[in-house]
Amino acid sequence: MKKYIIQYAMIIIGALISAISCNLFLIPNHFLSGGLTGIAIILHYLFDLPIGIQNIIFNIPILYIAYHFFGRLYFFNTILGTGLYSFFIDLTSFLTPYTPLHNNPMLSAIVAGVISGIGFGLILRANANTGGADVIAALIKKLYSYNIGTMIFALNCIIVLCGLCLFNFEVAIYTLIYMYIMGEVDNRIVTGFNKRKSIMIISDKSEQIAGLIMLELGRGVTLINGEGGYTHTKKKILYIVVNLTQLSKIKEIALNIDKKAFFIISNASEVNGKGFSYH
């Protein structure tokens, strides 16, 4: 029960934060947005139509994708996220005249990107979305394992290019800045700020290094059988996933044992398993 309370609280708070960001920074500066909300904003500028109601109508076909590919729970969360976001956009529309940064479009784009990224990131982290491009990006992630924030940014650029035909070039540039920052913050919220590193170590003393890593850091190590392509020498390759703070210690341990140890260090965007996602 506590899990669901936290999940739905994140959806509600995320939808409210994103809606406030839209009305305080996007609409007053005549910025665009991506996805179906971006289309709704364009029509709002042209015909003064309410953004929230449009967003709900446009997302009706998207609900089929949510139900067909992600199941009933995700379908329900899509309805909840889309409905709340649309409701909060129209509910907080009275904030538009009170924007604190109406004379500084660059700062508005940056602040809007950070705030919207936090809001949408909370919604996505709660396994929900606000419909439109979010569902399409989640589908692409499911099928091809691409990063959600990056996919949303790419899909949203299409809407901005369409908006260029109706609005000036400067607005499009500020909108792209806003969406890029939003995508980056979105990624951080969804994947977490606690970065992980995956490390491969090739050494003639791999088992000694592995033993000391497990003893001093308490971190699991995987030994993979390897063979040199030129010498055909058999070697044990170490594979380890660690927190960022443990990286320097791993290097210190390995180099103290074998100064010729070969390292491959890369970012691990998501880690699930004992010692990371659960204990």
Could you describe the 3D structure shown?
- The protein has 279 residues and is α+β, with helices and mostly antiparallel strands.
- Helix content is 62%, strand content 11%.
- The protein contains 10 helices and 4 strands.
- A 4-stranded antiparallel β-sheet has the order 2-3-1-4, with helices on one face.
- The longest helix has 32 residues, at 60-91.
What is shown here, in short?
The protein has 10 helices and 4 strands, in the order ααααααααβαββαβ. With 279 residues, the protein is α+β, with helices and mostly antiparallel strands. Helix 6 packs across helix 7 (148-163) and helix 9 (206-217) runs antiparallel to helix 10 (247-257).
What tags apply to this protein structure?
279 residues, alpha+beta, 4-stranded antiparallel sheet
Topology (SSEs and partners):
Layout: H1 2-26, H2 35-47, H3 51-58, H4 60-91, H5 105-125, H6 133-144, H7 148-163, H8 169-191, E1 196-203, H9 206-217, E2 222-227, E3 234-243, H10 247-257, E4 262-268
Antiparallel strand pairs: 1-3, 1-4, 2-3
Helix pairs in contact: 1-4, 1-5, 2-3, 2-7, 3-4, 5-8, 6-7, 7-8, 9-10
The succession of helices and strands, N to C, reads HHHHHHHHEHEEHE
Number of strands: 4
User: In which range does the helix fraction lie?
Assistant: 55-70%
| Number of alpha- plus pi-helical segments | 10
Shape: elongated
Multimeric state of these chains?
single chain
Low-pLDDT residue intervals, each spanning 5 or more residues: none
Query: What's the main sheet like?
Result: 4 strands, antiparallel
Structural class: alpha+beta
Distance between the termini: 20 Å
**C-alpha-based Rg, rounded:** 23 Å
Q: Beta-strand level of the residues, as a percent range?
A: 5-15%
Strand order of the largest sheet: 2-3-1-4
Overall pLDDT confidence:
87
